[in-house]
Amino acid sequence: MNRPRVTVVGLGPAGEGYIGVGTLDLLRAAPAAFLRTSRHPSAALAGDIPSFDHVYERAATFEEVYERITEELVAAAGRVRDEGPVVYAVPGSPLVAERTVELLRADERVDITVVPSLSFLDLAWERLGIDPLTAGVRLVDGARFITEAAGERGPLLVAQCWSKPVLSDIKLSLETDSGEAPSVTVLHHLGLDDEVVTTVRWDELDRCIEPDHLTSLWIPLLTAPVAAELMDLVELVRRLRADCPWDAKQTHASLTRHLLEESYEAIDAIEELTRAEAGEGDEAVAVAHLEEELGDVLFQVVFHATLASEEGRFTLADVARGVHDKLVSPPPPRVRRRGGRLARGRRRQLGGHQAGREAARERHRRHPPRTARPRPRHQAPAQGLGHRRVGRRRG
Asked: pTM, whole model, 2 decimals?
């Protein structure tokens, strides 16, 4: 018995002028037709065809979205098996960065036919004036930039840069001084009336445009390796927030005691290292201890930045940029004219909140932190990530 059939077509990268010949006719003549999403410039041309937007609204992850869409398509194809194939329309080309097509091809319950169409890549190559084969371009998913771009030097075309947090993560992943930062070209709404193709500084990447699902980046050369370790930590915290009930319910306030606890333990490690350097202990052990405790403090910083990013307030990149800008901002002109006072002026500038810091220290001297009850160790939501603790009981 013949298996149910699904025909996949593409809506092209932009408006009506980029849709393949016969695509709309296939959709209108099908016994059942679906759009992956109605959020596309050409979607309205398909008429009243239903979309899977409701799946995006209910699912927790993109992978869950694509799996549910696949299941619904397979079920629909089974219902109209005797009438013809289900026609499924996706943005751009079905052959470029389309996870549902991969899942349908791997599903033995249906036969799939893919109709090639124009991709956003074709417009990108034209706007950039390059031959991707000659240039040796690597195509990278913006949401997986840290893993897919690891070790790469470019050129890279980074697709699906659909939000400011995605752009912030890309920016933060590069370990470089501003003077060495590569240029990056933003490709936005290619083929539409409000198309933008502009080259910006790396540190302006997440501030130069309001990105969406039609935003990509062109990075001709990476001058420094991607900060894989830091971004791995950022990604782990996100997965813990999504998969671990304890992490999911945390707030800035609930984590306060843990931040304070880890800060005290970092100070203890510094004091241990000081003693070891004076000959009162094993220096190698003390260095390893300090490294561990600084990592625990960093985990707290990343966790708080992740919470703020989820709330739309700021990202880890904003935190890093803020402290960088504070450190490099020039001292007041009257201080700069007095070369001998420059260092003192810088100290005063960086210590502008010294009174507040002293008040906080005095408060903590009067009210030492209660040691946080240790939470049960749990397995992180990815194989090989091991255990971690937020608070520890002191003896």
From this structure: 0.57
